[in-house]
Amino acid sequence: MTEILHIRLLEMIPRRSGFVLSITNDEEHPHDKKGKGFVLNQGDKVLITGGSGEGKSFFLKTLLGIAPASMVNGEFRQGGSGPWLQYKDYINQTNMYKSCRVVFQDAVNSLHPYRAIEAQCPGSDEDYRELLLNKQYIATRMPKDCSGGECQRVSLMFAKRNHEKSKRRILILDEPLTDIDRISFRATVTAIEHFFDDPEWTVILVTHKWKEWEWLKSKKLRHYKIDHGRLVKKEAVKDYKDCEILPSGRSKNCPTLDDGDLFKQNPVIYRLKVDGSFSVYNSNKDFCLWELDDLQLRNGQRLGLIGESGSGKTTLLRIAGSLFSKSDYKSRLLSEFSFRDGLEPVITQPMLPRCRRIQMVFQDTTGALAPNETVKKNLDRIQSRIKAPKNLFDKKFEELGSDLNLFSGSKELCEFRKKQMTLLSMGQARRFSLLRALLFMNIYDAAAAKEPKLLLLDEISRGLDQENENLLVTVLDNFAIQYNTSILAVSHDIGFITRLCNSFRVMFKGFLLHEKLSKSELIKLSSDENATEQEEPSLLNPYYGKFLQGVEPDHNMERNLSNGDDYSGCIYAKYYVCDNINRPGCIHAALKEKGEVGICM
Predict the structure, then answer these.
(1) Domain regions of the chain by residue span
(2) Which of 222, 223, 265, 452 is surrounded by the fewest CB atoms within 10 Å?
């Protein structure tokens, strides 16, 4: 068995981070009398679990030699017989990062953000197709213009295709399925299993979701948990229950009824319309959002947007957040919110009053935070901008931050204020981004608290373990009730979004599909194995059931527009696409009407 790396006497002490991570397992090495350490051999399959913010991703960066030298102490040895090196020397001599294939938790960081996908990850149409990627559509785009799920699948495709060229076959996976939609999940898991089943590959997998993945249970893994600053083998922990499924955490006052039951009589506080098609980027092959005139939110409603990666969910949120140019809103986009007595165009409102009523938490939270700022400096800037009373602002920060499990007690509060943004884990960055958004809103006097507000959430549960997911739902429940806040949320995690929201819409290739889903319908379609073969097809478009069951639509049942077919053979031909199509018609017909040619699914 060839040794790749041996680490001993490790302490990772991120500056102002509030935790120390050390190796304290009992793994003995036959040639090292000091004994204790972490040994990685060729062909090992390693699973690392632990709570949000425990240091899992930082440990991976240490293995790769890309963590700052000032934050790590320890001895490292490569190849089994080389000299023991201090970390600062290991950084200068190791080639681990260059010789590994890495899929980061923020998958866009696995790729160069400003180089076209095909230039970085060349592959055949079949290579792309294996992970349900359309090469013609995605090849010329840059990672920054792709969805998170597309970036994760491209990174895996690149690793799989290039394994023959790799002298040291090492794959590092940090939450590789966080942005994967239900249809792409099976293809992505198949690609990952390829590495687990190949004895020549060394794989390190970090995840919160391992107990939910049946496919992983059959693999022979060395399992470690990072627990309160210690890396320990799972078997060494008595009565250990990793990733335990906890109660939902839903507050007693949270509405659980479906949209039609609870919000039908409430006034509309937000409306979004797209006139014609809206091209997001400047290329004929780029994504378009097609005409839409029926997205409305009533006061108190929490609407969940679901759909495949790249279907337009984030684009729709960005339109709602007024993040496109003013000229777009004057011509093709309409985004209206109830600022006073009626709906008014959002773009006409001054920036500060608008932001006090509408806030967005981005999918890429690490990119949305100023990397060199401390938490305190960031909060001071917000407090100064909104001119909130300092004592009241600090009180809200302490209450909400504690509820979100960012700190507990005065000591942890002090340490958290000193943290730099770059030292927040993915889960911490996600929760802090939400905390900033909540603090920016009008919540500091009784009159403002009653005004309608809108929270836009893009994959807010990414990077969170089950316990922190439950806390997040509870905080959003209570905040929405106390401060009259409606929510428009995007997520691939059906379990999470079902707990958070009370009504749902599905997006498909730039269309917001016509039929709305209630909570009960979403739960039934997600859990019923016969949902794809409904006895009453008039109830829902069959694509809904296929998507929620993770079944890829049968391409053989569809027609190619270039052949001039009448769509009579399309399984979707009898269903409306959107409100602007005043006749039954499949998405093929709608795309042809807009000038698109080709198989749409």
Answers:
(1) 3-236, 259-514, 528-593
(2) 265
The phi and psi torsions of 296 (rounded to 5 degrees) equal: -130, 145
247 neighbors 37 (Cβ within 8 angstroms): no
What is the reported pLDDT for 182? 87
Maximum Cα–Cα distance for the chain, whole Å? 78
382 vs 385: CA distance, rounded Å: 5
For 588, which DSSP code? Answer: H
Place of tokens 């250990």: 240
Query: How is residue 203 written in tokens?
Result: 């794989």
Residues making up the chain, counted from first to last: 601
Q: What single-letter DSSP state applies at residue 434?
A: H
User: Do 3-236 and 259-514 come out as alike in CATH topology?
Assistant: yes
Q: How far apart are alpha carbons 568 and 586 in whole angstroms?
A: 9
pLDDT tens string 440-498: 999 999 888 899 999 999 999 987 888 889 999 999 999 999 999 999 999 999 989 99
Into which CATH architecture does domain 3-236 fall?
3-Layer(aba) Sandwich (3.40)
d(C-alpha 326, C-alpha 348), whole Å: 9
Are 240 and 50 spatial neighbours (Cβ–Cβ below 8 Å)?
no
Phi, psi at residue 29, to the nearest 5°? -110, 135
Res. 52: pLDDT tops 70: yes
Residue 571 confidence (pLDDT): 45
Q: What are the phi and psi torsion angles at 7 (to 5°)?
A: -120, 135
Using DSSP, state whether 102 is helix, strand or coil. Answer: strand
Strand 45-50 vs strand 222-227: parallel, antiparallel, or unpaired?
parallel
Q: Which residue has the tokens 């970085």?
A: 120
SS (H, E, C) 56-99: HHHHHHHHHCCCCHHHEEEEEEECCCCCCEEHHHHHHHCCHHHH
Please tell me the predicted confidence (pLDDT) of residue 436.
Answer: 95
Full-model pTM: 0.83
- Among 222, 220, 217, 194, which Cα is nearest to 41's? 222
Q: At what angle do helices 390-403 and 409-418 cross, to 10 degrees?
A: 110
Cα distance between residue 374 and residue 454, in whole Å: 27
DSSP 105: S
227/411 Cα distance (integer angstroms): 20
Q: Which CATH number fits domain 259-514: 3.30.420.40, 3.40.50.300, 3.60.140.10, 3.30.450.20?
A: 3.40.50.300
DSSP string, 124-187: -HHHHHHTT--HHHHTTS-GGGS-HHHHHHHHHHHHHHTGGG-SS-EEEEESTTTT--HHHHHH
Three-class SS of residue 32?
strand
DSSP string, 292-312: EEEEEEETT-EEEEEESTTSS
Residue 383, sorted as left (phi over 0), alpha (psi -120 to 50) or beta, turns out to be alpha
